[in-house]
Structure formats: structure tokens, C-alpha cells
């Protein structure tokens, strides 16, 4: 697999919080974006494989639309442990997402909390099931770090009042301020409470 690197200079978290909060407030009854110390993400309610999100952050865009169209490229398979090294730090007929949650900071012990998220076509309700596999296919967007404690963005939104959803509001805010000249990538964990996702 070919790897290209694009060093970035991300904006300060306090600046990002203000940029993100603005469009959320236009589409939700209450919305906040602030900088907080990252909780231990191994604990409830997150239950992730690693404790933090800080230290040498890195994002990766793997595969892509060319693996989906005009036909699925079933040979586009990726091993999370190899991808983690490159970052230096099953095929299903339903709409689904493989949500990698992988910690290999200890070379003798790999923690795999990866889940497969999909919408059940009969009930239209989401499922989030663990998978023992450390493989993925077609395309991925990954965030990796040294899993250290540190400051993070805490973004909340309740009671949607506008047409835009949570992620589209965040994207709109980033695009409006930074545009194409300064791409900004975010990584982290989402916690959905008392809501039903309308699409994935």
C-alpha cells in the first residue's frame, strides 16, 4: 500500500470549540463545545480500548470511493495492526460501518474493541456488535495517537431544531472558517443518548 504524508498545523482547541459551537447552536435547542481534560475512555460510558486521545495525533484516509464504485473491490482489505504501523503510532449487504477501536501500545498485548455498526433493515434500528476481527475493507477514516491523557473537545447537542444533523453542523463550521486551504480533521468518540440515528 502506498503511503503519503501531509503534515498539518491544527488550530488551537479553544478556537475549534468556538468554530464548531456556532452552527450547532443554529440547529439545536442547546449546544456547547468546550475544551476539557479527556476522561479515561476505557471506563463507562465509552468502554474503549485505550484511555486517552493525546500524543502525536495522526489521521489516515484509507481506500476510498474507488473501492465502492462502479463495483465493490473485495480485494481492498486492511489489517489494523499494519495500518497503525503505517500511521506510526467481512463483507455485509447492509449499510454498516466498521468502527475500529484498537490499542497496540503494548507490543505484547493488543486490545481490540472494534465494533460493527449497522442499521437493521427490518426494524430501522441501529446495532453495535463487537467483532474479533482486526481487519477492515473498502475504506476507512482513522484517528490514532499515543493514547495519552490531555485536553480534548467536548461537544454536546440536544433537541434538533434545524435541518442539519450533528456531524454536518461540525463540518459546516470547519468549512466556513478554514475552507479548502486549511483542512481540519477531528477524531474521537461519539456518545449517542436518547436519540436514534437517521442514517450512517
UniProtKB/TrEMBL annotation:
Superkingdom of the organism of origin: Eukaryota
Domain annotation DUF1907: ranges: 19-200
Keyword Isomerase: no
Molecular functions (GO terms): hydrolase activity, acting on ester bonds; zinc ion binding
Presence of the UniProt keyword rRNA-binding in the record: no
Alphabetically ordered keywords of this record: Hydrolase, Metal-binding, Nucleus, Zinc
InterPro entries to which the protein is assigned, alphabetical: C11orf54_DUF1907 (IPR015021)
Compartment list: Nucleus
Signal peptide: none
Main subcellular localisation: nucleus
A Pfam entry, by short name: DUF1907
GO cellular component: nucleus
Quaternary structure (record): Monomer.
Protein name as catalogued: DUF1907 domain-containing protein
